[in-house]
Specification:
The structure is a single chain. This protein has about 100 residues and is mainly alpha-helical. The protein has one domain (about 10-95). It is about 65% helix and about 0% strand. It contains 3 helices and no strands. The chain has helices spanning about 10-40, 50-75, 90-95. The radius of gyration is 21 Å and the shape is flat.
Length: about 100
């Protein structure tokens, strides 16, 4: 991972550096979860106990949910994609009342 930008006031550069770092970290986290899951499924050929299978069944989906939430933020997928400048006054008023434009 490259070091942070030399100019901390260059917000575009800092933002891009942080996004790149987050993307790399989320990819690492996803890989770690996959490796742990694979290891849990192949414990030296011995079948996993019911207790261990239940733990994996509970922990893995939650871990993936956390990873996916972080990835959405890191990749900007949770950004509001509404072009507010293109909305009419009526649409802006509806938005102010909590109704999202179509």
């Amino acid at each position: 991972m490259p070091p942070p930008p030399a100019d901390p006031d260059d917000l575009d550069l800092v933002r891009q550096w942080l996004l790149d770092r987050h993307r790399t970290e989320w990819a690492s986290a996803r890989g770690a979860i996959y490796r742990l899951l694979q290891r849990a499924q192949t414990t030296d050929g011995a079948p996993m106990s019911l207790s261990d299978r239940l733990k994996v069944a509970r922990v893995v989906p939650r871990a993936l949910e956390i990873i996916q939430e972080g990835e959405r933020r890191a990749w900007g997928l949770d950004a509001d994609l509404i072009d507010y400048d293109a909305l009419t006054d009526a649409q802006l008023a509806a938005l102010a009342r909590g109704r999202r434009p179509q």
